[in-house]
Amino acid sequence: MILLIACASSEKVRFDNYSLYKIFPQNEQQVRVLQDLYNKETQYDFWNHPTMSAEYVNVLSSPLDRSRLESFLNKTDMKFVITIENVQEIIDNQFVSNYTRNNIRSMSWSRYYDLDSINAWLEDLKDAYSNIVTLITGGQSYESRDIKGIKLSHGSGRRAIFIEGGIHSREWISPATVCYIINELLTSDDPETKAAAIDFDWYIFPVTNPDGYVWTHEVDRLWRKNRRPFGSEFGVDLNRNWNNNWLVAGSSSNPASNNFAGLGPFSEPESRSLSTYLRTIGDQIDLYLSFHSFGHLLLLPFGNTTEPLANYQDAINIGRRAMGALSVRYETSYVTGNIAEAIYLATGGSVDWVKEHLNVPLVYCYELRDDGNYGFLLPEEQILPNNEEVMDSLLELIHQAKRFGYMSNAPHLTTSLTTLVALLLTFVFQVNYYN
Fold this sequence. Notes:
This protein is of the alpha/beta class and about 425 residues long. The chain has helices spanning about 1-10, 30-40, 65-75, 85-90, 115-130, 175-185, 190-200, 210-220, 270-280, 310-330, 340, 350-360, 385-405, 415-435, and strands spanning about 20-25, 45, 55-60, 80-85, 95, 110-115, 135-140, 145-150, 160-165, 200-205, 230, 235, 285-295, 295-300, 335-340, 360-370. Helix 10 packs antiparallel against helix 13. About 45% of the residues are buried.
């Protein structure tokens, strides 16, 4: 009731003495017990789903429900630890920086930023790099905010890479990672990064759920959905609202659920308008990346089956090698698999729709840091390490994709020069031969 009153009145939601539990199910029976708790007891906030593949399950409990939860876990012989005793303390200590307008170097890679700062930074990038950066709008939100992004291009005729972040609003590390990728593509002196920036057109949207993201900064830090009202409830899970096996698995028809899929596929302006934008460039996209948190996972379609559909074997091999590169810098270990096999059955997401309806060759979803100790409240000191290792993996994704015969149509200066020299030598040889 307290949370409902706060949401209705726009007062700040507080999580004083809310605790985060990290539960370790040991067998199938314990997984089923947790699944039953997830389905029946709405007072607990499950930050990830109880499945056989899950090493742990994070559950947020209010102080009023702690004793009941612990009694349940002890009764069922469930191992657990409390990783955060007071969630509000962590929220209070998360510092949100203000971007200084017309000073792109003031953007820090060890801080979080609100929507206004991110959008102002994007606008300044357009001015600072006017020859290669274009501001683009990928759609609109329920509250009429633009879904803003940039197109980074060094010339026409290039294949495209599309990146979307922030579709789940409480996953702040997602927009932070996407913004870091933009910065690297524009400023890095690393030859591989510069080549990737030049070789492709990049369409990048840091926050694709702007209403929800604003809400996490102004009212409820742990809000996940968009902000459409449904009676006394609010919000649709935008990553369950895409028109691909909508409401088949891993979603709910209950507006009170964090996984509420909406009243129908593409019922929400965010998913509907972004998909419309994607259709206009779909035949150009070679690689599609969606950034989420948390869990150290690289997921590929599909979420409705564990069958190795489409180019599963190529995609899994490319992904695993990229995650090998990710692990080098900080020894962070990621698991690669399709959505259904790596986490749980979940449909109506953007990556499945992009893969099936746009036929994009390589489609991945990152579940970024952490490993269940902080969950959605990733500390600032982990932002930059997370971003650095992800950038390492992104470059390796491109490299491995080319080795497997993908993403090979992007023009590259050295390739063009080589071809030109070869043609010139052929011409000279033919002139000499016939003379």
